[in-house]
Amino acid sequence: MARLPRLLAAVFAAILAGSGTAYAEDHPTAGIHTPRTGSYAAVGEPLLVTGGAVNGEAGGITAVDVSVDGGTTWQPAEESREQWRFRFTPTAPGDVAVIARAHTRSTTGHPSPATTVHVGATPGPLPRIHDANNGLTLPVFDQVLDPDREPVELGLEFQVDRPGTITGVTVDRGTHTGPIRTRLWTGGGDLVADALSGSPGTGREWVDFPTPIPVHPGQDYVVSYFSDRSWGYRASENYFTATILQAPFIVEPGAGVYHYGVHGGFPTETWHDSNYWVLPQFQE
């Protein structure tokens, strides 16, 4: 098996394990990545359900179905293969049980354990985060290397559902192999953290801030990195089209932001709900 399929299998095995789904090699298995169970949502708030599906070494996932009524009715997910997404808008208060199932040409897998979203309820005890350092992780859809050669600051606006600290970011790099500058801003544009990565390379890079920065529920924050001239950068259009609830993160539509400038700067502009693949790392 090639390196990328092995990596995807490992990632989605972790997703399925985290969702409580047993990883099996004899039938297709689907797992839900977002929202995380126990999340709170408002009536009328469009939500983005994402997940993965595996079928052991055999592969061959042909489709994924999603149910938002505990399995009474099913609807096809977008992408509908190893990585998938589904948008729905709760129309009434109450608990919504979201489940998924995967298909091959010959087999329909068992439904996943339900992810429960509390709609229209007053937030109660928050779901426990098991990892001490918990970064926002998102399935890759339609990621391209944008040929833009102008210097630009690329970012993500987000909130958190509990107090904690932002310790750094991950960045899916463009073609540049030298150090990259990453930043954390308040929603009002105040720069509160600035770091320069120390390891040259391509692909995904983890960059730690010199000091973890406290963050608080109900406030907007932006993580960003500066893409200098001739770098190019990774982007996925039409990604943040609904709210993502991945505790402790809340990412709303239009969260991908940018700002053109010789030295970058606070990013506020948006383009086609793009994701620029700079993601925060959180620690309680």
Brief descriptors of the model:
about 280 residues, mainly beta, 7-stranded antiparallel beta sheet, 5-stranded mixed beta sheet, 1 helix, 21 strands, about 5% helix, globular, disordered N terminus
Task: Offer a concise description of the structure.
With 284 residues, the protein is mainly beta. It has one helix at residues 3-18, and strands at residues 29-34, 39-41, 47-54, 63-67, 75-76, 83-88, 94-103, 115-119, 133-135, 144-146, 152-160, 164-172, 181-186, 191-196, 204-215, 221-227, 233-235, 244-246, 249-251, 256-260, 278-283. It has one helix and 21 strands.
SSE blueprint and pairings:
Blueprint: H1 3-18, E1 29-34, E2 39-41, E3 47-54, E4 63-67, E5 75-76, E6 83-88, E7 94-103, E8 115-119, E9 133-135, E10 144-146, E11 152-160, E12 164-172, E13 181-186, E14 191-196, E15 204-215, E16 221-227, E17 233-235, E18 244-246, E19 249-251, E20 256-260, E21 278-283
Parallel strand pairs: 2-8
Antiparallel strand pairs: 1-3, 3-6, 4-5, 4-7, 7-8, 9-21, 10-17, 11-16, 11-19, 11-20, 12-15, 12-21, 13-14, 13-16, 18-19
Notes on the protein architecture:
It is a single chain. The chain is mainly beta and 284 residues long. It contains one helix and 21 strands. Helix content is 6%, strand content 42%. Strands 11, 13, 14, 16, 18, 19 and 20 form a seven-stranded antiparallel beta sheet that branches. It is globular.
